[in-house]
Specification:
Number of strands: 8
Shape: globular
Number of helices: 6
Structural class: alpha+beta
Oligomer: single chain
CATH topology of the largest domain: endopeptidase fold (from Nostoc punctiforme)
CATH architecture of the largest domain: Alpha-Beta Complex
Largest sheet: 6 strands, antiparallel
Radius of gyration: 20 Å
Length: 170
């Protein structure tokens, strides 16, 4: 299809007009916008389920090794979310969760994917991607919250994105 577009717009490009440039931009941006909108719509139910789960846990304090509303750590929150939302079991530790599926580019992340961070020499952190650069996690300082991947702190600590094998989609 790209070759078809290239052949048809070549005469316009040779003329070097501003109008031809705008036509090409309009065609390309329309295609990209439509794909983005379709992807957002396709994953809306997953995002909605994750948001509902988050609303029940929001504000729960962080507790290393915890796994209840009295206190929970990041990997327990992720494992519990997967069990409650997807009826899937993930390992209990961040290191084990980091290898449960396929590593994918951050730009390809979909709601439900795991986002992992190296927060210290040997320390790891995990959260669940929600879309639009947001992820939910159990923060050591703030408890269960949502944060942005483009936040300077999380951006600097970002390690990888993993799509658990049970959630692999076309």
């Amino acid at each position: 299809m790209m070759q078809f577009l290239k052949l048809n717009i070549q005469p316009l490009l040779r003329k070097g007009t501003a109008l031809s440039y705008l036509v090409v931009l309009a065609i390309l941006s329309g295609c990209a916008g439509q794909r983005y909108q379709q992807a957002e719509t396709a994953y809306a139910p997953i995002k909605s389920q994750l948001q509902a789960h988050y609303s029940r846990w929001n504000g729960t304090p962080y507790k290393y090794g915890g796994n209840s509303r009295r206190g929970i750590d990041c990997s327990a929150f992720v494992a519990m979310t997967y069990k409650d939302v997807f009826d899937l079991y993930l390992p209990r530790t961040t290191r084990a969760q980091a290898v449960v599926g396929e590593t994918i580019p951050q730009s390809s992340a979909r709601p439900g994917d795991l986002v992992l961070f190296k927060t210290g020499l040997f320390d790891r952190h995990v959260g669940i991607y929600l879309g639009n650069q947001y992820f939910m996690h159990a923060s050591a300082s703030k408890g269960v919250i949502q944060s942005r991947l483009d936040n300077p702190y999380w951006n600097a600590k970002y390690w990888k994105t993993v799509r658990p094998s049970n959630l692999l989609r076309n």
